[in-house]
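Good morning,

Both structures are done.
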Amino acid sequence: MIAEGVETEVQRCFLVSERIDQLQGYLNGQPLPIEHWAAAVGLPDVTGVPARAAWV
């Protein structure tokens, strides 16, 4: 099971005590601008490349 919206250590501790082992929310990381997406998922940076050329 995944718990969403986990923002505090108190929330994390409670969820772990309830055997929830997958968490997401501000406690783990804050949202990043879309420009950081490619690097986050291991793709080459295509900033400045026309959209058609990026998928070729």
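Second structure follows.
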Amino acid sequence: MNKLLSLCLAVMLLPLAVSANAKFVEGKHYQVIAEQASAKPAVKEYFSFYCGGCYGFEPVAQSLARKLPEGTEFKKVHVDFIRAASPEIQNMLARAYLVAKNMGKGDQVTMAIFNQIHRSRVPFVNEADVRNLMLLHDIDADEYEKAMRSFSVRGAASQMKKEQEELSKSRVLSSVPMLVVNDKYKIINEALNQRNLENELQELISYLLAKDA
């Protein structure tokens, strides 16, 4: 069954891959950062709620996530190296995002956090500030507090930190937003047509997914 799904995905992406093959160049539009691709197709966005560029990119990120081929996961990985808030607050925001995502409100809460920081310019000072924002989006207080303390959410936040440290150490991750396809290909946003960024990203992502299909 898995082989059949992989074959179907490859056939679906083939026309895009053929046209993109002549357009996208390794070392210019994308960088190979690992020998082995992820077991399952995935696109990761490394971002920070305190990054203005990430705030501007968020509508594009959400649109790209909706248009991915079936079976391809879009994962957001929050980083904490932007010194606009304490590591504790940034960890809380990362966990709050994970809780919201698990409750089916990831996109909604992500934009709310971005808007509070960048549009309203109201800082998150403590745990109560994060909790209050979540409650405004119809998330039950008891469920939220239980989830924030859960092993799964804390583990996922720790995994974000681990990935950040590993990619920073290897000098792959130095700025955000950054997109990585299949844990193997880093997209170089600067080389893409900024006036047609979403379409170019969608085309490049499809091309890179097809390379490992």
